[in-house]
Structure formats: C-alpha cells, structure tokens
From TrEMBL:
<dbReference type="GO" id="GO:0003677">
    <property type="term" value="F:DNA binding"/>
</dbReference>
<dbReference type="InterPro" id="IPR048048">
    <property type="entry name" value="BldC-like"/>
</dbReference>
<dbReference type="InterPro" id="IPR041657">
    <property type="entry name" value="HTH_17"/>
</dbReference>
<dbReference type="InterPro" id="IPR009061">
    <property type="entry name" value="DNA-bd_dom_put_sf"/>
</dbReference>
<dbReference type="Pfam" id="PF12728">
    <property type="entry name" value="HTH_17"/>
</dbReference>
<protein>
    <submittedName>
        <fullName>Excisionase family DNA binding protein</fullName>
    </submittedName>
</protein>
<dbReference type="InterPro" id="IPR010093">
    <property type="entry name" value="SinI_DNA-bd"/>
</dbReference>
<feature type="domain" description="Helix-turn-helix">
    <location>
        <begin position="11"/>
        <end position="60"/>
    </location>
</feature>
Length: 72
C-alpha cells in the first residue's frame, strides 16, 4: 500500500470505533494490543484505525452474531 493511498483513507479515533461497536474506547485499545485491529499512531502518539478495517471487523462480528444459535 502506498503512502498516498494511506493519506486518502479515512482514519477513525478510538471513540469513533467504540461508538460503532457500542463498547468503551478502552476496549478498542485492548483489541489493538491483542492484534484484533491494527492501529496507526499519529505524530502525537494517538491511535487511529483504518475505516475499511473497522468496517470489515464490524461485518464479521455481525455475521458471527447471526450464526449463533439462540440469538434473535
């Protein structure tokens, strides 16, 4: 992936990712530390997440929930 492509991709804050998954932002940070979600560090050291990666994880989570028995 080129640097130009990275610049064009939307990056989300931990709070934005947390809102999509309805979890605490600290949970998102734990996911990054566990390797479940890749993070990018800003020059100031803050984590950012690629929107495309977050959406893919969200879709996988939704599909897994749909296939669990007993879940409406």
């Amino acid at each position: 992936m080129t640097a130009r492509h990275l610049d064009a991709e939307n990056l989300l804050t931990p709070a934005e990712v947390a809102a999509l998954f309805r979890v605490d932002p600290k949970t998102v940070t734990r996911w990054a530390k566990a390797g479940k979600l890749n993070s990018i560090r800003t020059l100031g050291g803050h984590r950012r997440y690629r929107e495309s990666e977050v959406r893919a994880l969200l879709e996988r989570a939704n599909m897994a929930a749909e296939h669990q028995p007993g879940v409406a």
